[in-house]
Amino acid sequence: MAGTFPVPAWLGSVATALALSAGPASATGDKALGEYLSSECTTCHQSSGRQVGGIPAIIGHPADQFIALMITYRDKQRDNQVMQTIAGRLTREEMDALAAYYESLKPSR
Amino acid sequence: MQINRRSVVLTGLSAAGTFALGAPGVLGQAKPRVVVIGGGAGGATAARYIAKDSQGAIAVTLVEENESYQTCFHSNLYVGGFRKYEEIVHGYDALAKNHGITLARARATQIDRDKKEVVLSTGQRLPYDRLVVSPGIDLKYDSVPGWSKEVEEQMPHGWKPGRQTQLIKQRLDAVPNGGTIVMIAPPNPYRCPPGPYERASMFAHVLQQAGKKDAKIIILDPKESFSKQGVFQADWEKRYRSMIEWLGPKIHDGIKSVDPKTNTVVTGFETYKDCAFVNVIPAQMAGEIARSAGLAPAGGYCAIDAATMKSTVDPNIFVLGDACIAGDMPKSAFSANSQAKVAAMTIRGELTNARTFPARYVNTCWSLVAPDDTIKVGGRYEPKDGKIAATETFVSKPGESAELRKENQAENMGWYAGITADMFS
User: B243 near B204, Cβ under 8 Å?
Assistant: First the structure.
């Protein structure tokens, strides 16, 4: 199912941020913390992986790409006021946690 | 009580012993019990997250008298012709089927805080270890002279879901070219701060599309200013020219009375006679069950602890959404959904020793002004000095690109699908 899942456009545009992000890809973040933090994401990004309108699916994505994207929003290198606001208060530990949690999820359909 | 998921109840009972030792907050009892009053953005989300994340360790009952839920959010898109009515109506069956939540189709008539029981309209009493109260708002029918519950069909409010929402659309569609719509906006604090102004935008859009370009919309506001005012007014001028006229209290000099028989609205400055449609959005307060339980003062809202969403008057009760005083957070579905997750986490921590984390909140409100032209306001929030305080906020600006506004609308539609899945799936 993951193979048929639409690849968000942003995945192709985070290479620079990925190169700049501190540390290695982290799938070892605190998943319990990540699950709690993810409740802030699930108001828009569906847990099932379903993608509707302008809200991309974010489950199952590699942790390093997820972190790189959060950094670009936190640093306001990418436009989107909602995401800049949410990423703006994430510590690196929290980004690791969220990334580890979302990487562990698989689309349910 | 009508429980329409008897199999769920039986499954819950059979599983009770399994989790008895995992419930330190209520030792000696089969399974900790959470009752949730209200199946909206606060209540449905809380019920779902408690049941989902406790994986059967907590018995969750959702008390909701309606069979389905019509969202107030996106009801303006229905009024504007951007959504079908059935698209904003959602059922509760998946909450029972997917998460084992017991659905109690009844009205909560009393909270017996001493006995920790909720009394239902059926006479049934539901005991609880923790109670979530999320009843939304009640309208203050005496807040506009001449207006009352008896005349809410003639001068609809459309601020509570169901028939009232449909009445707004019917009345709008019947406005003739050259007709005048008067909207009386509510005083703070009220449900959905940008809502009246998004609705006025949808009124103008529908009239414009129907070629009724000589119709007028007059907003009589008791407030000096309103949510996203600068960008709304700039966009109204651009999109609808002089169709929408907003009058603050210094201009209209007070809303003196309305007369439903003659469709007249009297202000200190002017009398509007023979209006084609008068939309009265009155002052509001916490839902009746919260007030009668002593969780809110007469005519007011419920004070909560900013770190947990607990009522400040009863540590076993959590109040969510429009009924509570959430500091800098607006009364919105997004806010209620966010608050529900803090409450759900706290409840699981207390009843099953689940791990807890510091509370954090978030909100965004999108408003459609015209086709593919959506503005937004939002922020993030944390407990600070005893209230939920904004730590960063944003708001759309006049003159933004058409591309950005179109992206906002795509986001708005995606958010709706997301939050309703987060509440009901």
Answer: yes
Summarize pLDDT for B284-294 with one digit per residue, the tens: 999 999 999 99
Contact criterion met (CB < 8 Å) for A46 and B422 = yes
What is the residue type of B91?
G
Domain C-terminal end among B260, B282, B304: B282
Residue B25: how many other CB atoms lie within 10 Å = 15
d(CA B325, CA B303): 5
* Residues of B whose CB is below 8 A from A86: 362, 380
3-state secondary structure of B391: strand
Interface pTM, i.e. ipTM? 0.86
Of B378, B416, B422, the CB nearest to A85: B378
Determine the residue of chain A that is closest to B336 in CA distance. A43
CATH, domain range A27-49+58-109: 1.10.760.10
Any domain includes B420: no
- Cβ-Cβ contacts under 8 Å between A and B: the total is 90
Residues in B touching A84 (Cβ below 8 Å): 394
Residue type, A78: R
Residue type at position B282: P
* pLDDT over threshold 70, residue B3: no
List the domain range (segments joined by +) for residue B176.
Answer: 148-282
- CATH assignment of the domain containing B23: 3.50.50.60
